[in-house]
């Protein structure tokens, strides 16, 4: 079963850990080609990897943190202003710490309560969200 197929068909499950109040999922992108977001050229040359984490919808009533070894690619287009770029995902805003489906859930829960109460409800098994984040959303 691939829990992440719905987010991105190329995302594969690697491993997971279950702690007292959270699930930590390790995933990896299996996409072979990646498009440079600056010039649109396709690259297959991986430059490096770095650890990136974000929160997703809860699993088994526990907060879920997803860790991905995010890849950086070379852009081989000599006319591009950038030489490398990081793989991006549609389900996550650039530098986002929460998936869009989690943000939708937070927005669903929050309107009828104060941000303090919403933050408390969310911390109880959904996600760590500060009240200022809720206000911003
Ligand atoms: Zn480029």
Mean pLDDT: 88
State the total count of DSSP E strands.
7
Radius of gyration, rounded? 17 Å
List low-confidence stretches.
none
Bound molecules: zinc ion
Written as H for each helix and E for each strand, in order along the chain, the element string is EEEEEEEHHH
The helix/strand class is alpha+beta
Query: What amount of the residues lies in strands?
Result: 35-45%
Shape: elongated
* Spatial gap, N to C terminus: 31 Å
What is the total number of structural domains? Answer: 2
What is the number of helical segments per DSSP (H or I, 4+ residues)? Answer: 3
State the helicity in percent bands: 10-25%
Largest sheet: 5 strands, mixed
How would you describe this structure to a colleague?
There is one protein chain. The longest helix has 10 residues, at 100-109. Helices cover 18% and strands 36% of the residues. The protein has two domains: 1-94, no CATH class; 98-137, no CATH class. It has helices at residues 100-109, 115-123, 131-136, and strands spanning 11-18, 22-29, 34-35, 42-43, 46-59, 62-74, 84-86. It is built from three helices and seven strands, in the order βββββββααα. The chain is elongated and about 55 Å long.
């Amino acid at each position: 079963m691939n829990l992440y197929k719905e987010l991105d068909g190329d995302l594969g499950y690697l491993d997971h850990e279950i702690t007292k109040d959270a699930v930590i999922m390790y995933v990896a992108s299996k996409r072979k080609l990646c498009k440079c977001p600056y010039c649109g050229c396709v690259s297959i040359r991986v430059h490096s990897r770095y650890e990136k984490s974000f929160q997703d919808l809860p699993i088994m009533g526990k907060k879920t943190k997803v860790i991905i070894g995010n890849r950086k690619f070379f852009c081989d287009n000599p006319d591009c202003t950038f030489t490398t770029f990081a793989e991006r995902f549609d389900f996550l805003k650039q530098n986002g710490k929460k998936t869009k489906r989690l943000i939708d859930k937070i927005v669903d829960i929050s309107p009828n309560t104060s941000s303090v109460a919403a933050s408390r409800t969310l911390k109880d098994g959904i996600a760590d969200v500060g009240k200022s984040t809720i206000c911003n959303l």
